[in-house]
Amino acid sequence: MGGPFLLFLFVKNTAPIDKAKLRGRKMNQEHPFLSADERERYLRQLSMADWSEEDQLKLKNLHVTVMGIGGAASSIINNLLLLGVGTLEAIDQDTVELSNLNRQFIHNVEHIGMSKAESLKIYARRLNPNVKVIAKQVKIDETTIDKTLDPKTDVIIDTFDKWAYRSIVNRFAVEHKTPYLMAGVVSNCFYTALLYSPHTPCLNCLIGRFQGPSVVGSFQAAIFAINILPIAAMGAFSIAELIKYLKTGEATNQFYFGSLYNTKQDIRFFTLFLSKHFKNISQEQGVKWGTVWESEGMTKLKLSKDPACRICGNSQFGEKN
Questions:
Q1: Of 220, 176, 205, which is closest to residue 281 (Cα–Cα)?
Q2: Largest CA distance in the chain
C-alpha cells in the first residue's frame, strides 16, 4: 500500500439510490495538466479502471478545507495527500501532546509542543510536496469563522470532536452553499456523510442538540477511549464519498455508520445529540439509536431534509421556492 492507513476505495453503487445534484458550483481549473513527476507518483491509481487522468486533474484542481488536525483528520489528510488533492487547507487551535500520538499519526514525538498546524506542514511537505498546504492555528467560533474559512473552498471536511463547533461550520457551509462532509468516530465505531444544502439535509437536520451545558459539560471533561482502527476506516469511507462527488457531481445522500466489532460500544456522545427527525428516518429504515451499539459492519441510511430545520429549512440560507 502507498502509505500508512490509506484504504483506497472507489465505491460503485450497486443499488439505485436517490441522489441530489450539486448544481451551480464550478470547480477551479487552474491546473490543466499533470507534471511528469505527478504522472509517475500517481501511476498506480491512474492504472485503475475507474480512475482516469481527467479524474486526477479534477482532484488536483480541488480545494479542500479540513476542520481539525487531530485523529480523525489524520486519516482524512493522509488520504488526500497520497491521492493528490490540489490544495489542502486545515485549521486547528491546539498543539501536539504525547497523548495524541496513539492515533494522530501526522504528528510525532519531535513535534510535541508545536502547533498542529505547523506539524502538518512538515508532514505534508515530506509526504507529497505537490500539494499546496495552508495550515492555520485558529480557534473557530462565531467571531472567527468568516475571517478564517475561504467561501470559495470546494469542500469542507469537518472532523471537530465537539458538536457546538460543528454547528458553526455547518452554518457557514449552508450560507455559502459549500459541500460539507461530516466525519467522526465514537468508541470503535465511525460515521460519515456528504451533505450539500439546499440539495441535501444539513448537519442541523441530523444533529439537533448542539448546546446544553449540562450535557456537553459532562462529556467535555471526560477522557474518551479511542484508538487508530475506527479512524483509519472512517478516513477511507469519507474520502470515498468525496471521490464519488468528484467523479459524478452528485451527492449519494447517504449516512454511513460502521462498527469494527460485535461487542458493546458506548456511542452516547453520538446518539445523545441526534435530532428527532434523524431518529425518525432511522427507525423507518430499521435502526433504533440507543446508548450502546452491538452490530458489527456497516449500516447505511438514506437521508432526507427536516422541513422544520432552523438552519436550512426556512432560513435565509435555504432553498427559495
A1: 205
A2: 56
pLDDT at 10: 38
**CA dihedral sign of residues 241, 242, 244, 249:** positive
- Amino acid, res. 230: P
Check pLDDT > 90 for residue 85.
yes
Name 280's Cβ contacts closer than 8 Å, sequence gap at least 6: none
In order of 71, 133, 188, 231, the CA distances from 184 in angstroms are 9, 22, 11, 8
> Contacts for 104-113 with beta carbons within 8 Å, 24 or more apart?
104/69, 104/70, 104/71, 104/73, 104/74, 105/4, 105/5, 105/74, 105/78, 105/228, 106/69, 106/73, 106/74, 106/77, 106/78, 107/74
Residue 72: name the closest of 225, 222, 235, 270 by CA. 235
Residue 199: which of 173, 234, 168 has the closest Cα? 173
**What is the CA 188 to chain-centroid distance, rounded?**
17
Residue 99 CA to residue 116 CA, distance in Å, equals 13
Residue whose cell numbers read 489524520? 74
Cα separation, 129 vs 121, whole angstroms = 10
pTM: 0.88
Q: Give the 3-state secondary structure percentages of the chain, helix then strand then coil, rounded to 5.
A: 35, 20, 45
pLDDT at 27: 57
Q: List pLDDT tens digits, range 109-154.
A: 999 999 999 999 999 999 999 999 999 999 999 999 999 999 999 9
* Residue ranges covered by each domain of the chain: 34-302
Q: What is the pLDDT of residues 197-222, one digit of tens each?
A: 999 999 999 998 664 444 545 555 45
- Give pLDDT tens digits for 23-45: 445 556 677 899 999 999 999 99
Superfamily, domain 34-302: NAD(P)-binding Rossmann-like Domain (3.40.50.720)
Nearest to 184 by CA among 211, 206, 212, 217: 206
